[in-house]
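Per reviewer request, we include the raw input and output of the structure prediction for the construct analysed in the revised manuscript.
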Amino acid sequence: MIKKKIALALFTTTLGMGVVAAAPLDPNTRLEKVKELFAQYGADTFKILNGLDIGGTSNAGSGSGPIASRADIAAVIKSDDGNAFIFCVEDGKWAVYPPEPMKIGTNAMTATDANDRPFVQMLIDELKQSQNGKAHHIRYDVTTPDGRIQQREATVWKSSHFLSPKNNTGKKFFCGTSVKAVP
């Protein structure tokens, strides 16, 4: 158990440092870091990405657990400029969604963009059309808190890219990144 906690601490430190050094708009780097989490923790990765406790480790910010604080988790799921975030949909429900954490566990299939287009269904359709289970540069619009329309861009990977050699969780999921689109 101690070895596992030490490994998690080292992994988290390395992971956090790697993301901070990454370019703010590099969605593939972020998804590679999430893939590393899935390789080590499987479906518990959703809990980690949501800043929750796994197996007796604490993410409450006390500094006593292997993941020292929510800032360590934020380094994985958000960019240093606050522009990008990671999201995951599992069996049609939000599994990770930092912009609105209260949506975790709710129906993601009803999500629409600012133009009332079915956002999650768009992502799924793009994944189905992709040759390799990765879809890039999916544009959609959101309404900002001040009422402006902002164009964003998503990159999504299906579960087989996170869990090797196959998805043995019994659940269908995909994860992706969202960044402000560059004109």
